[in-house]
């Protein structure tokens, strides 16, 4: 690490300790992005913070918040011999309600499952083989929603009949409102997701300060970004302020990306959606609008799932609510391991449990 960077990190750490000392009480800050969770663990940033400042992981991993009953519906789809399921790599090992049941296991048994890097890759699969149905698993938050919407619109423009999307997209605001409404939620500030903010803008988080008097800082992903954002949050707590600050100005505009927002509005609309560990959150999901309904795999293949999440010993839901550290789960590192996961927080590259396990001791 260059000397200048080390000096900056040392100076930021010193300022964080001063601000925490001035506050004089414990402060809980929540990162709402799986990429932040992994960056914090990889860099060992928690070791630099004073004992009174706690960084908690929120529901910021899109794979992790996909409930098992939805995975079960995907697994039933993969049983069809005429269907290719196209998915991001993180989704392939997420277990359903029965341990050992995943897309990876189904592929090993002969199911047609392809890992893709974008929805356009899935579109290309469909165009290359018109005799096969290709279903893209549309998982993610506002960051990936515009690309999924663009693929759906492109499929309609091309007249592809064998391409569809299983909509699993979610939006951040309703989830944060659900957390803040919980009586036992104890977080004094949010480290806000830089990727989502590139789409919705810093203004998309103003409700946190205006309605809940809770500070937020949109953060980049380098250690310096995160430490500076933590410092800014502590300053707000110290001063009794509640504002939304944008540390990630090199990528995030105040009002986001108008073209991406327009694409989402044209193709997608909100619906109630189940979240792992949080239950059904009204208006938190994105599904496909009626003019593009022919590309909705859930309708096309009559895929249904119960709203209720089946009981499990996995504590992933509590981890994503900031109520439990990954290591406090009784399954962590014993029954639940990256090579044999019980829950998705140990599967995804953005999962809090995977980050804690991979970088424990860092």
What is the SS-derived class? Answer: alpha/beta
Number of domains: 2
Secondary-structure element order, N to C: HEHEHEHEHEHEHEHHEHEHEEHHH
How would a crystallographer describe the biggest sheet?
Answer: 6 strands, mixed
Helix content: 25-40%
* Mean pLDDT over all positions: 93
The total count of strands amounts to: 11
The appropriate CATH architecture of the largest domain is 3-Layer(aba) Sandwich
Low-confidence stretches: none
User: Helix count?
Assistant: 14
Distance between the termini: 16 Å
Bin the strand percentage: 15-25%
CATH topology of the largest domain: Rossmann fold
- Described by the principal axes of the CA atoms, the overall outline is globular
Which strand order do you get reading across the main beta sheet?
4-3-5-6-11-10
How would you describe what is shown here?
The chain is α/β, with parallel strands linked by helices and 362 residues long. It folds into two domains: 3-58 and 183-246, Rossmann fold; 68-172 and 256-300, Rossmann fold, CATH 3.40.50. Helices cover 38% and strands 18% of the residues. It has 14 helices and eleven strands. It has helices at 3-23, 34-43, 68-78, 103-108, 119-128, 145-158, 172-181, 194-200, 206-212, 223-239, 258-267, 297-300, 316-320, 352-358, and strands at residues 27-31, 53-57, 83-87, 113-115, 133-140, 163-170, 189-193, 216-219, 244-246, 268-275, 279-288. A six-stranded mixed β-sheet has the order 4-3-5-6-11-10, sandwiched between helices. Strands 2-1-7-8-9 form a five-stranded parallel β-sheet. Helix 6 links the parallel strand 5 (133-140) and strand 6 (163-170). Helix 1 runs parallel beside helix 10 and helix 6 packs across helix 11 (258-267).
């Amino acid at each position: 690490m260059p000397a200048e960077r080390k000096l900056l990190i040392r100076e930021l750490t010193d300022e964080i300790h001063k601000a925490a000392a001035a506050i004089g009480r414990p402060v809980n800050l929540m990162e709402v992005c799986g990429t932040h969770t992994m960056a914090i663990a990889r860099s060992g940033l928690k070791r630099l913070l004073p004992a009174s400042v706690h960084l908690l992981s929120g529901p910021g991993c899109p794979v992790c918040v996909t409930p098992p009953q939805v995975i079960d519906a995907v697994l039933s789809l993969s049983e069809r011999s005429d269907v290719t399921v196209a998915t991001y790599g993180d989704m392939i090992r997420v277990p359903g309600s029965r341990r050992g049941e995943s897309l990876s296991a189904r592929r090993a048994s002969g199911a047609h499952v392809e890992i893709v890097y974008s929805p356009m890759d899935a579109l290309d699969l469909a165009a290359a083989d018109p005799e096969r149905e290709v279903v893209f698993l549309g998982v993610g938050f506002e960051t990936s929603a515009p690309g999924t919407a663009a693929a759906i619109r492109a499929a309609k423009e091309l007249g592809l009949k064998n391409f569809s999307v299983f909509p699993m997209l979610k939006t951040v605001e309703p989830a944060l409102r659900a957390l803040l409404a919980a009586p036992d939620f104890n977080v004094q500030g949010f480290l806000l997701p830089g990727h989502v903010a590139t789409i919705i803008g810093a203004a998309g988080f103003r409700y946190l300060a205006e309605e809940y008097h809770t500070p937020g800082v949109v953060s980049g992903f380098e250690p310096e970004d995160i430490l500076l954002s933590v410092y800014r949050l502590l300053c707000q707590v110290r001063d009794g302020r509640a504002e939304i600050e944008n540390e990630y100005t090199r990528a995030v505009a105040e009002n986001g990306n108008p073209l991406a927002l327009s694409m989402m509005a044209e193709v997608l609309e909100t619906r109630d959606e189940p979240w792992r560990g949080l239950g059904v959150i009204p208006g938190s999901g994105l599904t496909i609008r009626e003019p593009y309904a022919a590309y909705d795999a859930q309708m096309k293949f009559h895929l249904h799932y119960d709203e209720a999440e089946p009981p499990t010993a996995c504590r992933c839901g509590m981890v994503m609510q900031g109520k439990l550290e990954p290591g406090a789960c009784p399954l962590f590192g014993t029954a639940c391991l990256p090579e044999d996961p019980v829950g998705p927080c140990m599967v995804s590259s953005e999962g809090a449990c995977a980050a804690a396990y991979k970088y424990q001791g860092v």
